[in-house]
From TrEMBL:
It holds the Pfam family ECH_1. GO terms for molecular function: isomerase activity. Gene3D superfamilies: 2-enoyl-CoA Hydratase, Chain A, domain 1. It comes from Streptomyces acidicola. This is Enoyl-CoA hydratase/isomerase family protein. It comes from the Bacteria. The lineage of its organism: Bacteria, Bacillati, Actinomycetota, Actinomycetes, Kitasatosporales.
Length: 268
């Protein structure tokens, strides 16, 4: 669905939204392709705001989340973002903690369409969606350990979708290895793989079908699916901030490692 086919396209500084009133499907696009759709602090606030807007918009019955451009769905937190932290490991301010739909109490179905890279903080969004459609260009990886950072929140979100060994391997291998769309499908992270450039259309088709069903039944089903894993997820997330605070290198040392990163990687 393009903006011309939808009613009421709306731009924010880092997001683009278009709601098709006929189908009930909203397409939400991360719109910073020049930064590989990395999330700065303003965009993080916009994401939280738009999920909350969708809660009160009864014309929106399903959402498709995607990224602008061909290179990346999202590469996580923008490294230029300055996030001051309290001087205690028991108090951590995570700028991405509220960027997902479930963190904002939205229980309408969300389908993610991925093309290109999805890494790091992108898993906050993928981890709170109902399912993921990826095209053959998609790759998934978690760079945290390479740059001296703890993969806590990301690993917890991924653990809701993938076998333990696959989560641990992705988190520990850092930038040395990327998971292909096909492998992501095999381990359950992705529910459908399409030809290059076709993930958005496939995701919209799924969302249109879901949006055509009675909203109460759909939203109740979404809530039931999440209730099945909510307790373990909440317990794990409660520890994530402390692990990050205790295990992360100082920002200046992280920057040194980022600058010295090696360009080569293996795709499996």
């Amino acid at each position: 669905m393009s903006a011309s086919e939808a009613h009421g396209p709306h731009r924010r500084s880092g997001l683009r939204t278009a709601v098709d009133k006929d189908t009930g499907v909203a397409v939400l696009t991360l719109d910073r392709p020049e930064r590989l759709n990395a999330i700065d602090l303003e965009m993080a606030g916009e994401l939280s705001a738009v999920w909350r807007e969708f809660r009160f918009d009864d014309t929106v019955r399903a959402v498709v989340l995607t990224g602008a451009g061909e290179r990346a769905f999202c590469t996580g937190l923008d490294r230029r973002a300055e996030v001051p932290q309290p001087g205690s490991p028991y108090m951590v301010d995570d700028p991405l903690i509220a960027i997902g739909p479930k963190a904002n109490d939205l229980w309408k179905p969300v389908v993610v369409a991925v093309g290109g890279m999805a890494c790091g903080g992108a898993f906050y969004l993928i981890g709170e969606a109902e399912f993921v459609v990826a095209d053959e260009t998609a790759t998934f990886f978690d760079p945290h350990t390479t740059y001296g950072m703890v993969s806590a929140f990301e690993s917890i979100y991924l653990a809701q979708r993938m076998p333990f060994g696959e989560v641990a391997r992705m988190a520990l291998m850092g930038t040395a290895e990327r998971v292909s769309a096909r492998r992501a499908y095999e381990v359950g992270l992705v529910s459908e793989v399409t030809a290059p450039g076709e993930a958005l259309a496939a995701a919209v088709r799924c969302a249109s079908v879901i949006a055509s069903y009675p909203a109460e039944a759909v939203q109740g089903t979404v809530r039931a699916c999440w209730a099945a894993q909510e307790a373990s997820r909440a317990q794990a997330l409660a520890h994530a901030g402390n692990l990050v605070a205790l295990g992360n290198l100082p920002p200046e040392r992280q920057a040194e490692l980022f600058t010295a990163r090696r360009p080569d990687f293996r795709t499996r």
